[in-house]
């Protein structure tokens, strides 16, 4: 939830960090989307890293899913326009479809009460016009999907975890298994309802750690919640952290994988114009304790979504890429090493 505020704008302009130029400048700022930038996802092209794609949603009732090259320019033939209020987006690799494995990008479509799924990089629709979610639910916003996280289990199964504009205090998130349909394309089977909600504001940002098998989501007014990503893990809440230090909304989540289970959970402090960093692996002997480590100050404005990859993207981003939405209709790209989060 974005709160436009003259007061917060004034605080930012008056902050010493901002005036002294201590905010990290972006390496690339994308071309603006037409209406309202919101959430990014990164697709790494293993065959040609410099041809990788950053996807970004344009959150409006005539919005779209825009594809950007690493130079920040929109790739028209990889972009999908005319979506019905797209919100969040995620990418997954190696979905089994027929006799081959395909990479996919999935985006929530709020006015369609559905998720959309496309192949990458071909951008062929795989969803027969949209996969309905939260069917049978009643209540304000209960059927409007917002956040999305894709999870590829060790078995090779691919799941989608979806949040919504409004929901109950238990079972706010629904999880579906993506399945190939006999008539072609992809459908989804509901496998569980889980996730606590504070009852204030909403739940939008979702991030899944495929390697360790955890899902994190932002209960915007309360904190970051952590669960097992696989339905067989059960619905017990494993962690509830990041409850202090945020100016207002907890928004985008990015999982930075440093190998061997280590790394960071990076969360956007939207009205604080900052990113708060927590240890991915927790504490020694306490893997579900995630204390605050540090704050990173970038040049983005009121960031909703963010994403990170440690892959080699070629000459301009050889050590990884961090992407963050900025509230000026753009997305900003940063060389990962500039965030100074260690090797």
What can you see in these coordinates?
4% of the residues lie in helices and 46% in strands. With 343 residues, it is mainly β. The protein has one domain (6-339): Neuraminidase (6 Propeller). The protein has a four-stranded antiparallel β-sheet, with no helix packed on it. The chain has a four-stranded antiparallel β-sheet with strand order 2-3-4-5, with no helix packed on it. β19 (262-269) and β20 (274-279) form a beta hairpin.
Strand content: over 45%
**Which residue ranges are poorly predicted, with pLDDT under 50 across at least 5 consecutive positions?**
1-20
State the secondary-structure class: mainly beta
Per CATH, the superfamily is TolB, C-terminal domain
Number of domains: 1
Main attributes?
single chain, 343 residues, mainly beta, Neuraminidase, four-stranded antiparallel β-sheet, 2 helices, 24 strands, 4% helix, globular
Short description:
The protein has two helices and 24 strands. The chain has helices at 6-14, 16-19; strands at 28-29, 37-43, 53-58, 63-68, 80-83, 86-97, 100-109, 114-120, 131-132, 145-152, 158-164, 170-180, 186-196, 203-209, 214-219, 223-228, 239-241, 250-259, 262-269, 274-279, 294-296, 306-309, 321-326, 330-335.
